[in-house]
Amino acid sequence: MKMIKTLLIANRGEIALRVMRSAKEMGIKTVAVYSDADANAPHTKFADAGVHIGGSPVGESYLLIDTIIDAAKKTGADAIHPGYGFLSENADFARACEANDIIFVGPPVGAINVMGDKARSKRAMIAAGVPCVPGYQDEDQSDKALTTAAKSIGFPVMVKAAAGGGGRGMRLVHKAADIENAIKDARSEAVNAFGNGELIIEKAVQKPRHVELQVFADKHGNTVHLGERDCSVQRRHQKVIEEAPCPVMTEKLRAAMGDAAVNAAKAVEYVGAGTVEFLLDASGEFYFLEMNTRLQVEHPVTEMITGLDLVALQLRVAQGEALGLSQDDVTLSGHAMEVRLYAEDPANDFLPSTGPITLWSAPTDLARVDSGIESGGMVSPFYDSMVAKIITHGDTREVARIKLIKALQQTALVGVENNRDFLIDALGQEAFIKGEATTAFIAETYGDDGYARPELSDQDYTVAAVIDFLIAQDTALNASLGVPCELMGWSNARGVESVFVYNDVTVRVESGADDTLIVHIGDSTTAVSVPSRDAPHFTLIMDGEKTKVTAVKSAQGLHVITPARSFTVQNIAGGTASLEDAGGGGTVRAPMHGQLLEVFVKMGDTVKTGQRLAILEAMKMQHEILAEIDGEVVEIAAKAGSQIAADDLIMEIEGDA
């Protein structure tokens, strides 16, 4: 048995920090690796040592096997933990660790080779008797073979990257006319994300649950499962809300799925932590989806209900220790839920968002928070858009759900668009409350138009004006000499007020008796008192009702986060603001920073509304840019293969008269 003394974490963000915490508790020295973009990231600062490994793009840093091996040698690391993503399921990386006498905290190369390829893994599971979805996973990868297979299976089908995960290289195809483009796009995304363009085709199981089993195996022949997780709430085939146990699970079904998961692991002589994913249909039938040969993003919910530290268990198994528990020793207690906080805009088809983080404030008592960001940091366009996970546990599912909503209400992320309000809304939907959510939950709940932010109310404008007033008051006090705090806002004249204008709504704020602020919007009047203020946190009492608010100002305006919602407003009092869309639907701009992979049209082409114009890759996903009007392409301002910033002009289309 070789004890781990120094552990290099070949990853970044919240998972790097998560691994480091357990390692440090075990007395293991930790080493971070970091790119240019992560030179001052939290994981870099938290580690005992750090090594710079290259440029910001993953291909210049976190995917460089030789560079990471060299970093381990340089720092004396005798083990490497890959986290998830990046090189975590890369057999060549595991092989390189082995060749250099470095412990790879993960499964053997053979297991990665089989389970890391959807086609090979499916063939292996069929041979092992594990239930599988009907589909095509043969070696003939020609477009003709794939197209023929899809038509033979029958639509709808899923086109999937054989070497992929996380929704990348995956397309749902409803009709034959779309299969060729789906194959082309999925293959391109798979090559860019995983360096492998092999695809499989599967029958699309309609409205299933996504249920996965956590398995663990040691080098002594012991294999167990640690119960299941329900990960059905997804957008773009990426998980958003996870929970354990599954709301519809029975002891009989858990035993059957658990046996299948253990058999899947044994079939490839698995060692370490792994997750066997299944689709569970309404009748109780389940089908093997894939096996992730690594630690999962959602592992905390399993830790919550089992009381086990999965990272510590990974490290002990990697050292050669026995699991120390049998299947009978595994007990599940209570219920746990996790949400993924993404830097994205749910009201704009979950488009990723990047930029500086003005404020990050997370709950300290209600939930466990695994994050990789901090105030003053940056959400980079080079990496995944998930920035934090918020996890709660309760004796019952409902207790965990309510605690999670309250924890989110106390969460503030300012500077980038994020899905905090969407998560609160989703957790409060009837289908989710009843435990009825399937993989179709988001589409069925929010419809074709998707999630929409509610319009600002008079109460929202009241809160904004009061906070604007208080911030202006503090600014004035800090800039003044010898003005007592108790005289702030005092005047011997009557009717002195401050005026704020947001979105054409005029709000007047005046000081009342006993430090009360009187807020006027139209004919309505609200009395607001401020029992406590410790910027950026404020407590307001409006007509007797207490509200806790987090708020900060930036160049973009006043950012307000209340328990109900978050929003940004700009005070335009004293002037007018008129922002017009310079080009309308004919001006095609980049929706985010990224690489323009392809441009499908040229100068003089005639296009129709909805026609594909270009493909932009950002945050490891490919996004179609579609024409919003009929017309003629009169200018192309960006070239395929170039990096472009958000709002950069791509092309101009002159609309049909």
Polypeptide structure, described:
The protein is an alpha+beta fold. It folds into six domains: 100 residues, Rossmann fold, CATH 3.40.50.20; 153 residues, D-amino Acid Aminotransferase, Chain A, domain 1; 69 residues, Dna Ligase, domain 1, CATH 3.30.1490; 107 residues, ATP-grasp fold, B domain (D-amino Acid Aminotransferase, Chain A, domain 1); 98 residues; 72 residues, OB fold (Dihydrolipoamide Acetyltransferase, E2P). The chain has 16 helices and 39 strands. The strands form nine sheets. An eight-stranded antiparallel beta sheet has the order 14-13-10-11-12-15-22-20, sandwiched between helices. Strands 24-25-26-27-28-29-30-31 form an eight-stranded antiparallel beta sheet, covered by helices on one side. Strands 3-2-1-4-5 form a five-stranded parallel beta sheet. Helix 12 packs antiparallel against helix 13. The radius of gyration is 27 Å and the shape is globular. About 2% of the residues have low confidence.
Quick take:
The protein is built from 16 helices and 39 strands. With 657 residues, it is of the alpha+beta class. The chain folds into 6 domains: 6-105, Rossmann fold (3-Layer(aba) Sandwich); 106-133 and 209-333, D-amino Acid Aminotransferase, Chain A, domain 1; 135-203, Dna Ligase, domain 1; 339-445, ATP-grasp fold, B domain (D-amino Acid Aminotransferase, Chain A, domain 1); 458-479 and 494-569; 584-655, OB fold (Dihydrolipoamide Acetyltransferase, E2P).
